Fold each of these.
Amino acid sequence: MTRRGLLLDGGMGRELERIGAPFRQPEWSAPALMEAPEFVTKAHAGYIEAGADVITTNSYAVVPFHIGEERFAAEGRKLAALAGRSAREAADAAKDRKVLVAGSLPPVFGSYQPDLFNPALAGAYLDVLVGGMAPFVDVWLAETQSSLAEARAAHAATASTGLPFWISFTLRDDVSPAEMGEPQLRSGKL
């Protein structure tokens, strides 16, 4: 007997841009959530229809790095909850099978920039995301982590929920594999 693995969805930001959702820099995929959440629902539904067993909340850009400190302080938890609820509703609408919701926890100080990580603030930022999404998710997904410190902070923020914790790392691509030797995180660590 063989066991089929889980199929995850694809990149939410690029899919939102592809289907015509509001999309701009530096907010990335957050405008779709803030201005036209029906596009977020459409993207989730498309991934489910394509066979995804796991869909990821559109919360990657719901951090001060993308939406600014002021907006994050005022609306961060509400936006995280909206991202979680949108994914949960799409997952629950898949009547033919169970679809899991992964709560996206991004590098809160910017993707691919481990040097910007601030451990004094990371926990507070992550607590906002976790607090907003916790009622809606089945698993946590710390995405595009550039350092072990980022990943540890995300894990600490989710520990009290008791939900599974998944991590995706990003590796250095600024030097050739021959020069680097062993693959390294963007922080330069093995």
Amino acid sequence: MDHKAIFDLLAERIGAGAIAFHEDPIEPWAEIAVGRIAEACLFLRDDPRLAFDQLMCLSGLDWDGYDENGKGKSVAILGYQDDGTPEPGDRTATGDLGVAYHLYSHSLRHKFTLRVRMPRDRNVVPTVSGVWPTASWHEREAWDLVGIRFGGHPDLRRMLLEEDWVGHPLRKDYVMPGSWSGVPLQGQPFSENPFAPAAPAPAGGDTPAEG
């Protein structure tokens, strides 16, 4: 089934909760109201015409630096400078946050993408872990790195970083720390990788004489 036909079935079910269909040449997607996302996902899973039995991926999004239509130049995520110190940043991000859901039906062999979008200061979306249990892990990662809260999640805690880590590193306004728990952090350029293989000895160099 093509993407627009899938969206039309979804719109019949949740009405205005299916906000819009975006005919992107790379990845068409449906924009869904935040409060209706769990209902939409349950319908997409259970309707035999759709049968989306797999959540392939769930990703947190930071639209800061884009206009309201998602167009424009992205804002680079800050990292470390060549000397290993954090890149300074004083910009306050104001753009929306969101979540993208990539679905697949093994029986019908079609794919579909959903997105929700919410203001940065109201970044809560219902969990879909009750629809696809694997969402529990994806949602924890989106919370850890982007700071999106998933209402009703059974165990929403950090997944990659320590629980006392400050902030969410994939937000566009995140500034990397200079230290953590009293331990200095220093980003190293690839040219100074301490694990790189040693350079070969120059030809004709002195070698120990064999006895």
Amino acid sequence: MIRHTILFDLDGTLTDPKEGITAAFAYALRRFGIEADPDSLTSVIGPPLKDSFMDLYGFSEERAIEAIREYRVYFSQRGWAENIPYPGIDALLAALKREGRELILATSKPELFTRRIMDHFGLSPYFAHICAAPMDESDGGKKENVIAAALRLASDPAGAVMVGDRSYDIIGAHKNAIPAIGVLYGYGSREELEKAGADRTADSVASLGELLHDTI
């Protein structure tokens, strides 16, 4: 089955957010007296921020929420722009839209930053809908909730596929009964994606394009 509706993750799938996210995370940690090299923080790209502060640094939920506020001080000023689309993404999205495919963004990044990034890099016009997380983290940043919201807007939810680079994308897609393609050029390893049950994997933007024209 060639999938008409394609849900895309943002960070690590459409754009490389490493510099902005890791710098903002390191900034937040410094506010709590913790020094960390941004280059050592790539594991925080993808998971909900609260989970990363709690799981990696032992923050309480209350402290993690305070840390997210500090993170956003940096991210809202500089971090959102310290980002770049992966080479070939623009051409892939343009080709898919010309074919009449329905593209929907499904990201756990807050909507305010999501739209700013998508508009800044000229990616918004390719997408029929943009689904992102609320700024207040009221849904816990769970990817399956964002995917569920995206599918409610899709013209053909049964014919949808999710594309993302982390296990959260794969697991969230399967919880919503759709297949998922894991991209290996982002921040999830092959082991992570295969363990999560990725239906297919793509090691480059070009190979992703080929997979989206195959039966999935």
Amino acid sequence: MDKARAWLRSKTRGSQKAGVLVSKAAARFKPLAIHILEQGDENAVHWFLEDRDDVRSSNYLEDAATEIQVQGLELDYTCVLWDADVRCDNMKWKFYNFNGKTAWREETGKTESSLERRKYMLNAYRVLLTRARIGMVICVPEGNHNYISSGFPEDATRLPEFYDGTYKYFRSIGLEEI
């Protein structure tokens, strides 16, 4: 995320706008020091309209807006921060919802409601990937590689394998690493 912020700051000039975007289903970005804007028009208005000197501005790159808040809006430069809700696993996209506490649950698509949730999640990333006018960086976190002394993951909600396949997919289609 530090590289993504540096890239965005190096690109924006004058009154150009940059911002961090996440899916509404994103759940595990606190460890990356990213705050997701609360739903509501007032938060998004300040995020989108304030100038670079205002800490509420998108240009501060501290608050992330969701697909709901940026639908129909464009920024000059964006960082799409990719979470483990939509993952590429062996070149197949899989969809997950976070239970709010300890685990991700796969949307298998075996019921009508699960198929609808998968469509919504896919569309969320479509919206996020189409908000940049000039340039975009996609940030796929590394996950947490640490284990506690008893051998269990320090953070089982951010395992590296949740992100590795997505990163490899983007590299395989020609995206460059910054």
